[in-house]
Amino acid sequence: MTNTQLSLIQIDNYGPWTVTPEPRREMDLQTLQSRLFADLAQFVGSRDGYVFFTRFDNMVAVTNGLDEADHELLQESIANRYPVTISLGTGVDASPVEALESATAGLQTAGSAQDGDRREVLSGDVLAESDRMPEDLQIAHFDVNDATGKYTDRLNEFDSFIQIEQGYATLMRYLREEYGALSFFVGGDNIISVCPDMDEADYRDAIAHVEREAGVELKVGVGTGRTAHVAGFAAKHALEVCREEGTDVEFDRPHVEVADD
Amino acid sequence: MTNTQLSLIQIDNYGPWTVTPEPRREMDLQTLQSRLFADLAQFVGSRDGYVFFTRFDNMVAVTNGLDEADHELLQESIANRYPVTISLGTGVDASPVEALESATAGLQTAGSAQDGDRREVLSGDVLAESDRMPEDLQIAHFDVNDATGKYTDRLNEFDSFIQIEQGYATLMRYLREEYGALSFFVGGDNIISVCPDMDEADYRDAIAHVEREAGVELKVGVGTGRTAHVAGFAAKHALEVCREEGTDVEFDRPHVEVADD
Amino acid sequence: MTNTQLSLIQIDNYGPWTVTPEPRREMDLQTLQSRLFADLAQFVGSRDGYVFFTRFDNMVAVTNGLDEADHELLQESIANRYPVTISLGTGVDASPVEALESATAGLQTAGSAQDGDRREVLSGDVLAESDRMPEDLQIAHFDVNDATGKYTDRLNEFDSFIQIEQGYATLMRYLREEYGALSFFVGGDNIISVCPDMDEADYRDAIAHVEREAGVELKVGVGTGRTAHVAGFAAKHALEVCREEGTDVEFDRPHVEVADD
Amino acid sequence: MTNTQLSLIQIDNYGPWTVTPEPRREMDLQTLQSRLFADLAQFVGSRDGYVFFTRFDNMVAVTNGLDEADHELLQESIANRYPVTISLGTGVDASPVEALESATAGLQTAGSAQDGDRREVLSGDVLAESDRMPEDLQIAHFDVNDATGKYTDRLNEFDSFIQIEQGYATLMRYLREEYGALSFFVGGDNIISVCPDMDEADYRDAIAHVEREAGVELKVGVGTGRTAHVAGFAAKHALEVCREEGTDVEFDRPHVEVADD
Question: Phi/psi at B178 (nearest 5 deg)?
Fold first, then answer.
């Protein structure tokens, strides 16, 4: 069974800061946001977690394997190098959306995201090292069938983007409502979903729904692991199998080591 | 009348690169993409243009004021510092979507986005300095009414994100289809649109459509200018007026200097 | 005759900030400093200037071609993205050290580098566009003869570094005292000097002095230009000529185009 | 007794790359180097190690606590995001210079730093977790007495820099020759030394030597610890004691917790 540890990363009082004392240059804000995300991606990613940019002022991370001290260090390091600070809430649950619900609740209880006095909150639970298991995470990596041939090389870039975006908007809502899975657009034609235990039929159902509703054809590789990186890497390999074999859904197969005798 | 210069920024052969010789760590790809975007935002932004991350492997920039030499320098500098290269296509038109159509066509003619031999293409037209006018650009800056109170402080982060995202998906499609405007999510609850000449009724129409279809309430500040920064900054100030006065649509008003005598 | 425009970039009140409320993690400070330098290098460099990291809290830039508005924009953009602000002083003179003297004096007059109330000073003169000439800058690019063979592949890294460092310490002092030139270590075995009009004999003199005092053998390419990039690029090409022809001092020669008839 | 683990970080074949096919823009090289260093500082620093930029194409890191897998991950992540790759050599010894000697030898044995076929070497030993002790590292943090009052606020920036630089050049050589300690300039008026077991008299000797030879007055805080961060942080606190009490050499004192009863 999955046991997902999620962290909500929230820039403290960011909205008001962006217009104080008057609006700041948009490209400076874009630079700040994307570099902050990149730094989080390196910190969390080099500890085998995943971070998604979501709304940039609120980001969601899969942090199985990171403990409270790691979260504190991240908070301290960001405060040392940026003009803004971050609050962090963590939660653990078999259902990703429930884990995020806990993570979010911790910050909400501490005050509003736009409360100038609420800074660098750190709240919530992490998974004890002794409770961690090889199947704590199920990660699905979707992409769009032949996006380059059908969209990028044919339509203007915005019309290509609309196709991908509508596919994403449909998938994100469906997987959240039906399964409690959280789906994130990660660039190109790629979507990564943090999922509870779902089987092949569930993924076929989701793909069919997106094709029906948005006319976008997806395929998906699915991996499991003790960390987001392990599960996500397995998912990428499974997606490569889809590409090679022309299939729609592939789970990573256990690499069986055959003994000599 | 508007005269929008758009540049399509396309990472050359990026998809294949991300899985060669085998899939690369996802957080390294995320870091690479977001830092590349940040560098583009600084280069273009400090020349008063705007860049939007769109799909990250394909980005759209508003580049009125940047000439061919600027585009070449950008291309050279990225090639010197990244493991990937970029192709650039430019286009100019009263209609943003038509400008992007031209910009995209230049790259498509040169070959596929996944053609390993098609590298560092630079194609298309730029607006001659002598043709540039103070109303070349119309930029609209939307945000969601009380997003913090209604979503961020109440729902879990993913459910907040779904609301914002569905509002964005609806707006982007409507403005593109009805007006040829290009809309980009820029973080938080903010959407920036690059528009043709649109009037107050047009913006009210778009806002009403989004509320009807997605249940998301938007307001918008609109600015015009010779550059994206000037137009966008005026739009931000107009949006501040919306916030102060509780209005839905504001255009930046000329700052009239009253003489003493 | 040279006409060098130099800018002193000083982080405001940095020393006290690094230990308030208590000492900050050293690697966060190192990250902050080197990324700030990188951002300055991109801003100034993409406008054909040069920046040197010097002491990191005080940096020296060659800014021929950048006007006061460019300096203001840089200041604003850094303040938007970093937890620290910068003051900028500019100066212009045939002698680099005199230009820097003026640039520094502007900030010193405004208050101490560690005065908490002295923030974002912008002072000094820039070269009027109409006064700029193709020989405003003379840049010399030195490197160490066979540094890889003699040091890097033979000694431990610190002992290699000591050799390079002692060569640099000797050269920087000599060129400053004898000629008013400013020399900066730029990594590897490379030193870049911002020079007044110096001739081949002057450079031979400096190279001989360093060999005599520090036992380090240098060669140098020298370029002139309207901007640091043009002069420095010519210097790099001249240094390539030294490498190919085994010479010690080369000036960039005008590229003569020979007509067919 | 100290037991220092040092890693040599060497950019593979960097010199030739910077001039192939022709010289690259200097500010792009400076940006690349300083950002690469910043990324190493974050990776190593968030694992409680230290990295020094040294010559930028060769950097020295104190890596007690980082194992071979950490080094491999660092190598992979850099290769995914930069146009260059790095080789890493590690060594362990009571004497810092001997540790670096081992670290360097591993790379030298594998080939020249400018051998195009020698890429991503990883060689050398790391300290077993079971052998790590609370006094493995001794870190000294030096600064210049009243550098702002004596230099920064009085001299032009280059002349200030010359003073700091000559003080550093003298200290680095003396500590290396007399004690096998490795000293690195870290910006401002700060020098950090990685030392073997040295006592108060040794530090007084070094400070006196620098004052005599270079006329630069230093003070120093010294810390010990299981990691570079712990030792270096203790050194920073000790240096604060120097500042408050006007002393020249301070060792971090154990923080005695006094019980209530």
Answer: -80, -35
